[in-house]
Design brief:
By secondary structure, the chain is α+β, with helices and mostly antiparallel strands. It contains eleven helices and ten strands. Helix 3 packs across helix 5 and helix 8 runs antiparallel to helix 9. The C terminus is likely disordered.
Length: 539
């Protein structure tokens, strides 16, 4: 009978355990999207007036979601560290219970030799019982494994710090580039729009001439083709400049429809003229401070602790137990008693699989060492590429500055010297376009100088965010801190390591000099850094 009931109940149990996919409804999607949209820019200080470079950097650090995600990952690793540390503690469990049965728990004994009952049925337990115990358990093998797991988690928390450093450096670099593009857009777009209108007006004139057959068809078509090319170039330049606002808005996390007005801060980079770059020292700094290399060193410690864990697992487990017990059974002589014990266990299969697990852990360590060396080569390459980029940017600015100056003089002569009346309108428009294009090339070359400098700092692993800034610091408090740090990068200061940190390298030149160039005022570099001695302070 009971078996039939179990069989009847089995389909109900299986049906209750079945799980079917439940897609999110359209209404839920819309509700979540609305909530997310409201949270994107919530609790942010509004942008008032012209946006300075210092404020743009501060807003990116404070509000950018990539940085917020890195902060959340750091917090998660810290919480997991607290959890792994607690796993090393002994287990102290308290339990209490109540049991009842509908008849007596009686038993009798039978003789093994005769098979006859030797004792009449008797009971030693009440039908209703209350029990409680407090049990202490500590497994030394589990403690050893948990100890190395806690050390691994501590290193993972430090890895999260290094990843945040890398994200901040990349973020501030992107802000600087986008800020420079926004500055260029704000400067050149007002010049492009009138020129584009003049070109479109001239194009409409050619169509009218062709419609009225007032001129030869072929020369008019050639003229129109040239105008269309000019208009296409103008529209391309306008398109390139128009995205700068969206890029900067995304980095500092303001609504895309916000029209940002930037306030460029001119900085004289003449200090870079003849500036010595001690490449050997810079390579040393990069090998010590680069976030990715520091992450690889920490990961190697994580892998090494995996080896230690496998060694610990090869040892026998020793468990220490102790308990304080209570049972209100009236048949017991002692209702309260204490127990203690020691138990030794060993998994014999460890003799077979433990050696393979140990070899795999050691192979992981060797892989980490090789990966760190590969990253070291990549970092050294970044340093030297950035140095060559800086040299090329200085030379490019020198030439683009000369070309822009010539184009500007030609445009003035055409528009003010009466030359415009002596040549077709298309030539006048084309010369004005060349003047704008030359100015644009010059400003971009200036930006390349600053960007190359930032690439050097990023490749060296120098912190671009000053200490003392966190998610709780307000924008007004961050701006002066950022401004002070900006002054150092504007002065092209390169921090150095303490002496004897690394042996001198024979494969690099002691110093490289940036070629002489006429470097004029350039917008602020837009990066911040801390000295090597301060390390990751403030992260």
């Amino acid at each position: 009978m009971k078996l039939k009931l179990y069989l009847l109940a089995l389909p109900l149990i299986v049906a209750g355990c079945a799980v079917t996919p439940e897609p999110i409804s359209l209404a839920e999607h819309m509700s979540i999207a609305k909530e997310d949209n409201n949270r994107l820019f919530a609790e942010q200080e509004p942008v008032d007036g012209a946006l300075t470079l210092e404020e743009a950097v501060a807003r990116a650090v404070r509000y950018n979601f990539d940085h917020r995600l890195a902060m959340s990952e750091m917090l998660l690793q810290e919480r997991q560290l607290e959890m792994t540390v607690s796993n090393m503690l002994p287990r102290l469990a308290a339990s209490a219970g109540y049991s009842v049965r509908d008849n007596d728990s009686a038993s009798s004994s039978f003789s093994v030799r005769t098979g006859r009952q030797s004792l009449e049925p008797s009971i030693s337990s009440e039908r209703q019982r209350e029990t409680a115990d407090l049990t202490f358990t500590w497994n030394l093998l589990d403690f050893g494994v948990s100890y190395y797991q806690a050390k691994q988690q501590a290193d993972r928390a430090l890895i999260a710090v290094e990843r945040r450093r890398k994200i901040i450096n990349k973020l501030i670099k992107e802000v600087r580039i986008a800020y420079g593009q926004a500055t260029l857009s704000q400067k050149l777009l007002p010049k492009i729009e009138p020129l584009l209108k003049d070109a479109q007006r001239a194009l409409a004139g050619t169509q009218k001439i062709e419609g009225e057959s007032l001129d030869a068809v072929l020369p008019n078509l050639e003229y129109r083709k040239n105008l269309l090319r000019v208009i296409s170039q103008l529209e391309q330049v306008r398109a390139d400049l128009s995205v700068a606002n969206a890029q900067l808005a995304s980095l500092i996390n303001v609504p895309q429809q916000t029209r940002l007005r930037v306030a460029p801060k001119p900085v004289n980079l003449a200090v870079m003229r003849g500036k010595k770059l001690d490449m050997a020292e810079m390579e040393k700094v990069s090998l010590v401070m680069h976030p990715q290399l520091r992450e690889e060193r920490l990961q190697e410690r994580v892998d090494q602790n995996s080896v230690h864990k496998e060694w610990v697992r090869l040892l026998p487990g020793v468990s220490l137990t102790g308990s304080l017990n209570f049972d209100n059974n009236q048949y017991l002589l002692n209702e309260v008693w204490a127990e203690a014990g020691v138990r030794v266990t060993y998994n014999l299969l460890n003799l077979l699989v433990g050696r393979d697990a140990l070899r795999a852990a050691e192979a992981q360590v060797e892989l980490g060492k090789t990966r760190r060396l590969a990253v070291s080569v990549a970092v050294l390459t970044q340093i030297n590429v950035a140095r060559h980029q800086l040299e090329n940017a200085v030379n490019a600015f020198k030439r683009s500055d000369q070309i822009a100056a010539v184009d500007s003089r030609i445009s003035k002569l055409v528009t003010q010297g009466g030359v415009a009346q002596a040549e077709p309108e298309f030539e006048t428009i084309r010369r004005r376009l060349e003047a704008i294009a030359g100015e644009m090339d010059r400003e971009r070359a200036r930006g390349q100088i600053v960007e190359s400098m930032m690439n050097l700092y990023v490749a060296m692993g120098i912190d671009l965010m000053p200490a003392g800034i966190d998610e709780k610091t307000s924008i007004s408090e961050m701006v002066p801190i950022v401004a002070e740090a900006l002054s150092r990068i504007d002065a092209a200061e390169f921090p150095t390591l303490p002496p004897d940190t690394l042996p001198p390298s024979d494969t690099t030149k002691s110093a490289e000099r940036i070629p002489e160039a006429a470097i004029g005022p350039v917008e602020s570099a837009g990066v911040v850094f801390e000295s090597v001695n301060k390390g990751t302070q403030g992260l």
